[in-house]
Amino acid sequence: MADTVGFMEWNFQTAEELSAALRAGEVTSAELTDEAIARIERDDKAINAICVPDFDRARAAAHRADQARARGEDRPLLGIPVTVKESYNIAGLPTTWGMPPYRNYVPPEDAVQVTRLKAAGAVVLGKTNVPLGLQDIQSFNEIYGTTNNPWDHGRTAGGSSGGSAAALACGFGALSIGSDIGGSLRTPAHFCGIYAHKPTLGLAANRGMVPPLAPALPSDLDLAVVGPMARTARDLTLLLDVMAGPDPQTLGVAYDLTLPPARHERIGDFRVLVLDEHPLIPTGSAVRAGVNRVADALVDCGARVERHSSLLPDLTEAATLYTQLLISSSIARFPVESYEQLQTRVAGLNPDDQSLNAARLRAMVFSHRDWIEANNRRELHRHGWRQLFAEFDAVVCPITPTPAFPHDHNPNLLERRIDIEGVEYPYLDQLVWAGLATMPGLPATAIPAGRSAEGLPVGVQLIGPMFEDRTPLRLAELLELKIGGFQAPK
User: Fold this and answer.
1) CATH code, domain with 387
2) For 428-448, what is each residue's pLDDT tens digit?
3) Closest to 169 measured CA to CA, from 41, 29, 291, 47
């Protein structure tokens, strides 16, 4: 059985490979689960990716999976060890979002995506670490501590799905599920050298991915999505097919999901717009090299590659709109006294100040009328993207301007800085690339694209047309064959 491959070596096999081995009787789910647990117990002290282990129930689930397979059952993830971001409700385990007052909160039922994982036969090893309130692109909090980057423990694994990305890079399970509103799937993938997919807004039901004590009700969130993380593009597609579809309590009553096929099967048939410059923040040399590596591979394979298009919506306005929509929604529940203080600060801003910092501050006191106006402008951008995707099949661009940066635990995000080629910029300005896909709700696949001079992973994102998620996923799969994909940290 497992000895034919060697102890610990199953841990870096893909979900697709593990499924084939399970079907062939080369290994059991119990063996895979025991090996994953052994690896976590051996290596996670240095990484701190798995913040809530659930090993006893995982072993029991693996045993049930083996029994089901013995009865002739076969489901998409039957017997595959996986992890789940801490922010998803799992009955019997704490859901804290890293917030100390809720360290003992245990929800009564599973999130809809956890239910789908289990129905597909997955074995849940435990939960992965997050930042406080999911409000950072690093993953640390007072309850569970700091998740370190597997490639350099002095650097962040990213956030808010940083624990999931680090877990995958370390071989702690074959798949994970995360969420994304500010690059929270894509940035950790970029920093840790793995794959992630931000689905089209609304494609995957999010019920039960809620803060502690909040009722797990079906809702249409703005900007935020839940999505898959993996070590290969094909595994992303496998997991997306499990996750995708409307909530059975709402749209699922009437609708079945049928995603359109990828626009092309051959890399040479793709029409791709490549971007590596943003008007509001420079792109570091390591990330620029990653973008160019992908662009060169596309050209080598005969794809049509362009560097500019008059159809591209204005990047400065897109970043401003994203900032307005993101901040106004996240700040809406501020206490009244804080809101009044913010109003005073906004009144003191120079009207000519159009920086993203000023946009963030103004968005904190948005009226409903202000939000409607921003939303109307978003619809114009969505129309612009539809026109662009009539001429192109995908857009290749950065996820953030740099590889993983050193841990920075300054509690005031507005005081933090990001170093790009020796020059400091406002920390939150690096979100502009993630927001490019998030603001209009487009699907985006994060893929590994090489290493920096320091040996850190570098990723890029492939943005696709709305609800045509299979198009960037297929392009990711083809590029993986051309330029390589995941490599385990040394």
Assistant:
1) 3.90.1300.10
2) 999 999 999 999 999 999 999
3) 47
